[in-house]
Amino acid sequence: MGGNGLEQRFPVLAAALPYLSLGELATPLEDMPALAARLGLGQLAVKRDDLSSPVYGGNKLRKLEYLLADALATGCEAVVTYGSVGSNHALATSAFAVRLGLLPHAVLVDQPPSPVVAQKLRYLLQLGTTIHAAASFNQTRQIAADIRDRHPGGPARVYDIPWGGSNWRGAVGFVAAALELARQTAGAGSPPPDFLYLSGGTLGMATGLALGLRAAGLPTRIVAPRAVPSGTGATEHAASQVLEANREIRARDPSFPLFDDPLANLELRPEFYGPGYAEPTPGALEAIALLREHGIGLDITYTAKAFAGLMADARTGRLSGRSVVFWNSYNSAPYPAALDRVDLAPLPPELRHYVE
Hints:
Layout: H1 6-9, H2 11-16, E1 29-31, H3 33-39, E2 43-47, H4 60-73, E3 78-84, H5 88-99, E4 103-109, H6 115-127, E5 130-133, H7 137-150, E6 158-160, H8 168-187, E7 195-197, H9 204-215, E8 221-225, H10 234-252, E9 266-269, H11 282-293, H12 303-316, E10 323-327
Parallel strand pairs: 2-10, 3-4, 3-6, 4-5, 7-8, 7-10, 8-9
Antiparallel strand pairs: 1-2
Helix pairs in contact: 4-5, 4-8, 5-6, 8-9, 8-10, 9-10, 11-12
């Protein structure tokens, strides 16, 4: 226990959950006055979760601090998780799992090919990840069941981490992150932000922050431009995630509030998704170019679409004079050298075209 500050505000909850400190928290909250003026905002700060660890940064670390700790606490020897071929989550899970002596399995589905995707596959291979190709979401579950059945130590020794690490346990990492943000703004003598923009992926980050901000008494509204495929049930799915996480947390710490309206401070925005997953949009490309001028890198799949939403809202006047935080959830730690020399033989034939 210790490392993310949860024990300071909710010690009973912190004591009830296995926890490993994997990163360098708190991550900086970087004031961007020139960019704020350019966009017509009263104030803009970037939450630099891209700097969460020199091993592999980004938002996944905060979830993995609880998920991988639970894997070890339950005696697991391996982990299996899921994502697209270029999944940051699968890569982050593997990078930290191997450091803890856990064998990582990544079950991956297709996405548009690119040099970035190719490098991520090579990185997974260098880490020793066992990569499995799946043709559909439904097939990922069958592959995971086969992995558990074939594991020498038995199925119970394989820990299942959901897509994006998004379940109630992973969300606790972002409850702590919300409390971290509250401390940072208070310590700087700044009012709480009016809006917080972040990428709407599997929504574990949004779920945890929504609960944590309300528990901290902050009136901040979360805006989550969509970055992954979803149907008409996206809002209901988000609400159920918030309710489940709230119930599970409250069951472990009765001092944690139980909230009535799960989406009171969470706004999902589908209009910035574009033609498909990991497909560029004009707004995302503009966001990448703009943030690059200010020394911050974004990725085309998630964070660029989130900042595109922020820019669009600024242009409508919604954010005029308001205080805004942008949560940069992408990894900015460099990849290892010599990935081009990684042995590609263990790569499933179905995925070979991504690196060729």
